Amino acid sequence: QQIVNHMRHALDEEEFVLYLQPKYSLQDNRICGAEVLVRWAKPEGGMISPGEFIPVFERNGFITKLDYYVWEKTCKLLAGWIAEGKKPSPVSVNISRVSLYNPRLVEAICGLTDRYHIPRELLELELTESAYTTNPKAIKETMERLQKEGFSILMDDFGSGYSSLNVLKDIAVDVLKIDMKFLSDTDQEGRSQNILASVVRMAKWLNLPVIAEGVERREQVDFLHSVGCEYVQGFYFARPMPVSDYEKLVSEKK
Ligand code: G
Ligand code: G
Ligand code: MN
Ligand code: NA
């Protein structure tokens, strides 16, 4: 209970801040969007990364509140850019597996984009692949409702779970995100490279854009280019950054 009060307090005090990690188009090296990644800025200093607190929040249910908070902040951000006359690229937010089972999820997201007058193609939704396993039927239904409402669904961490292909068969997601952790450095025979190349090819057959994430090295970029992967995200290009830094970066590049 104490930790719950602590988190409520943190929400009220706006200790959760949005960071943005740019996504790039490999074809022209331009920024084509960003992913929102939340950070917890403690008043006594220091940033806590979500890897530490999201799993806790998923267990105690607080994640639904935090997710909603992040989506609303993101809508405000987009609304601000639009009001300034900018033509923002889409921004994606993460949806926790817990938020996914909120029966009012679709209403909540539609309500936010309506309230802030955000064109729905500007708010993209990232769902981790492993979330599908618990109740695939309910999730499929929710996904399809969101898509009908005009939102794109990005399948996060594709290939990391146990049922990637199964999920892909059942749900017509809009974008695949593949993690480069997939490519191990110790792989002498290039097995994982071959698998990655095949996934990109499969995605093309399915008419699905692919974003490679976790791109850290030049050789990975060259490889991705050679197999026709179109979009990238990762430390090699840019780390997650405060909103003001992202705005600066985007205005410089244009
Ligand atoms: O930024 P970092 O790599 O530390 O993020 C760690 C994990 O936290 C990632 O799996 C990411 O998807 C998740 N995450 C980041 N921000 C959010 C958020 O706003 N909501 C949810 N549910 N997960 C998030
Ligand atoms: O699960 P999800 O894909 O939403 O999480 C993205 C996480 O990956 C974030 O925590 C982000 O900080 C991290 N990340 C982004 N780019 C890189 C990268 O190039 N290398 C590594 N190791 N992590 C990255
Ligand atoms: Mn993500
Ligand atoms: Na991911």
Give a verbal description of the structure.
- By secondary structure, this protein is α/β, with parallel strands linked by helices.
- 43% of the residues lie in helices and 22% in strands.
- The protein is built from nine helices and ten strands.
- The protein has an eight-stranded mixed barrel with strand order 1-2-4-5-6-7-8-9, surrounded by four helices.
- Helix 4 links the parallel strand 4 (91-95) and strand 5 (123-128).
- Helix 3 (63-83) runs parallel beside helix 4.
- The longest helix has 21 residues, at 63-83.
- Bound molecules: guanosine-5'-monophosphate (G) (2 copies), manganese (II) ion and sodium ion.
- One guanosine-5'-monophosphate is lined by residues 37-38, 49-51, 54, 63, 67, 70, 94, 96, 240.
- Residues 1-254 form the EAL domain.
- This is Stage 0 sporulation protein A homolog.
Brief overview:
This protein is an alpha/beta fold.
Q: In what order do the strands lie side by side in the largest sheet?
A: 1-2-4-5-6-7-8-9
Mean pLDDT: 92
CATH superfamily: EAL domain
Ligand types: guanosine-5'-monophosphate, manganese (II) ion, sodium ion
Number of domains: 1
Q: Which class do the helix and strand fractions yield?
A: alpha/beta
Question: Which series of helices and strands comes N to C?
Answer: HEEEHHEHEHEHEHEHEEH
* CATH class bucket: Alpha Beta
Gyration radius (Cα, Å) is 18 Å
What is the fold named in CATH at topology level?
TIM Barrel
For the record, the CATH architecture stands as Alpha-Beta Barrel
Number of helices: 9
Shape: globular
Domain EAL: 1-254
Protein name: Stage 0 sporulation protein A homolog
